[in-house]
Design brief:
alpha/beta, Rossmann fold, 2 domains, seven-stranded parallel sheet, binds uridine-5'-diphosphate
């Protein structure tokens, strides 16, 4: 074990990034790289609780934990992210530094750090111990590129927005000309002034990204080639290794038996419900692990789904409706109760990748989180996008306008619009979207097969990490 290179991985402690970085950790461990994976106590306990302790098949992959500094009862929903990051900078960062710098004599020294791009403190730690840092931002590259364009957008006076015209086209995001309107920029660009905590965090992240020796992305070349090429102007060394969940399956057969890394209990009853539904008849509905919606939005969505006449499988995550913890405070309208009984299935958390792969699912009504978007792309399922925050506004624009994989419902939550969009994707434009989704799914799968672009990029990442190890050993022999 001592001869293996040793990579220290530190993900942002949220469902999407942890799942994604765990997939990368498994792939690297499979290629004889020793991994220390740093979870927060909170995330680690939940992984243990909901994966029967089976989320690690590798002797050379071990876990360590740090506190995130938040009270245990903090819901850790999307609106809490600035608090989470602030608290981690104070509480977790010094412990991380200590762990990486003071590795005991008996253990392999760290040869490389892979950290979430928002962890700006990782750059200082990597420099202090003289090891390469690779930033892995698990949002979409198209979304991340708009983060990198933020200084330019501010300098040009495009952000903050000068008036309420959300359809004004954006000029100063190179490679996105003619695509992006104000409403398609990440949600934090809607802040009235530059004191917004997320804007400050993103600007700080932008300053630190060029300090990394490389950037890792969960995407594939053919999906985002123009964006990746823009990004290379800032950091030439880019590894596009996604879709990681499919990549793990194609490289590592045992991965078929690994768990989904869920931090909620998956309700498998929805799979038997799907088994009894006709081919491509069901809309799968989920707003991911962080989004929270109002009761009004919840009701509009429900009416829209029922009025569309489609069958639906709806994930109603606990705590995802503001003020809806114990009961919604309203009587369920008869029409909704009836429509749901006839055509719906509601669960609190689903095995999403299995659901999206199911032949009964015809489309995905999604909040456009990047993991969800990629999971849908791989399974060739068209999307109805209702973005909630950060990169999701960009993702939904790309799904609707650039990749033509579905429709973008951005900034509207009205039962009539929902009904119309579901009917568009499930009925009137069904063939057009399915054909396109099928084509892009094939590209995604080819990218992670032998010789594909993501396959090659992962090989290069593994080789580069191994050569870092050789360089580190040569340097220690010289001193
Ligand atoms: N997910 C799941 N079951 C659900 C809903 C979501 O397993 O019922 C998973 C989904 O497969 C994805 C992740 O949660 O991997 C959500 O990540 P994403 O980036 O899409 O959105 P976020 O939750 O970060 O907003």
């Amino acid at each position: 074990m001592h001869n293996l290179p040793h990579v220290f991985i530190f993900p942002l402690p949220l469902q999407g990034p942890v799942n994604c970085m765990l997939k990368l950790a498994h792939l690297l461990a499979h290629h004889d790289i020793r991994i220390t994976f740093l979870n927060t106590h909170h995330i680690h306990q939940r992984l243990l609780a909901h994966n029967n302790n089976h989320f690690n098949n590798y002797a050379n992959l071990r876990f360590q934990t740090v506190p995130d500094g938040l009270p245990e009862d903090n819901p850790r929903t999307g609106d809490q992210i600035p608090n989470l990051l602030e608290s981690m900078e104070i509480v977790s960062a010094p412990i991380f530094r200590e762990m990486v710098t003071a590795v005991p004599e008996s253990e392999t020294p760290v040869t490389c750090i892979i950290a979430d791009g928002i962890f700006t403190f990782a750059a200082g730690v990597a420099a202090e111990i003289g090891v390469p840092l690779l930033y892995f931002d698990t949002v979409s590259p198209c979304g991340f590129w708009t983060y990198l364009c933020l200084p330019k957008l501010i300098e040009a006076g495009e952000v903050p927005f000068k008036d309420d015209n959300m359809d004004e086209m954006i000029i100063n995001a190179p490679g996105m000309e003619g695509i992006m309107r104000r409403r398609d920029l990440p949600s934090f660009c809607r802040a009235k002034d530059l004191d917004d905590p997320l804007i400050k965090l993103v600007l700080k992240e932008d300053d630190h990204i060029p300090l990394a020796q490389g950037l890792i992305f969960n995407t594939f070349q053919q999906l985002e080639a123009p964006i990746l090429s823009q990004m290379r102007n800032i950091c030439p060394n880019i590894y596009a290794v996604g879709p990681l969940h499919t990549h793990l399956k194609t490289r590592v057969l045992e991965a078929e038996t690994t768990t989904s890394n869920s931090i909620w209990k998956e309700d498998m009853t929805c799979i038997s419900w799907l088994d009894s539904q006709p081919l491509r008849s069901v809309v799968y509905v989920s707003i991911g692990s962080l989004a929270i919606i109002s009761k009004e939005e919840f009701l509009e969505l429900w009416h829209g789904l029922v009025n569309s006449g489609s069958r639906f499988l709806w994930v109603q995550r606990q705590g995802s409706v503001i003020g809806g913890a114990n009961n919604m405070g309203f009587e369920t309208p008869l029409q909704l109760a009836q429509g749901t009984k006839e055509r719906g299935c509601i669960v609190s958390w689903a095995p999403q990748q299995v659901v999206l792969a199911h032949p009964s699912v015809g489309a995905f009504f999604t909040h456009s989180g990047w993991n969800s978007s990629l999971e849908s792309i791989v399974e060739g399922k068209p999307m109805i996008c209702w973005p909630y925050g950060v990169d999701q506004q960009v993702n939904s624009r790309y799904v609707g306008e650039v990749w033509k994989l579905g429709v973008d419902m951005k900034d509207m939550c009205d039962r009539v619009v929902i009904e119309k969009m579901v009917k568009e994707v499930m009925e009137s434009r069904k063939d057009e979207f399915l054909e396109r989704a099928d084509h892009v799914a094939k590209l995604a799968k080819a990218s992670v097969s032998q010789g594909g672009s993501s396959f090659q990029d992962l090989d290069r990442l593994v080789d580069d990490i191994k050569s870092m190890r050789i360089r580190a050993r040569a340097a220690s022999q010289l001193s």
